[in-house]
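Page 42, continued from yesterday. The earlier attempt failed because a stray header line got pasted into the input along with the sequence. Redoing it now with the clean sequence only.
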Amino acid sequence: MNLAIERYVWRVTRRLRPHAPPERRRSIRAELRRHLRDASAEIGAGAAVEQAGDPVAVALEYAEVEIGWPRVWRARLGAIAAAVAFLFLAVLQQREIHLHRAAHWAHFDPWHADLYLVRLSGDLERSLVVHVDVARPAYVLVPLLAFLLWSRAWRCLPNGRNRKPSAAS
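This time it went through. Structure tokens are written below.
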């Protein structure tokens, strides 16, 4: 293993992270290593790395090729995030935090706050600091939002950046 070659390969493939899926980056790394090792056997590792060119330019060339490939989305991670969000809401539902009221406390008015999907209320006169009430739509909306964010579902949408160039252009 030559450190100059490994450093060059790393510098190229780290710039490909937003443009290529992990499997493709692994194959690019293997291809670059193979070519650089073959060249280093003939002319030396330092010269092979110099002849390979600027790592930024090489990464841009690979990125141009990779732009047309479909970007992966992670459905399994999204499902796990949705399940965790649902369980969190289930645990949060009807949760109450009590405080032992001191004798010297004055009179407190009951309070409540509606946060669209969650209602918080409390009554310090009865030693209830907060009572959490989760609305029914939250059991659908919050896990759905968690799924969309963690699965990166927007990567399945067609957009100009991820389209393969047509043969005419």
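Notes: Residues 3-72 form one domain.
Reminder to self: strip header lines before submitting.
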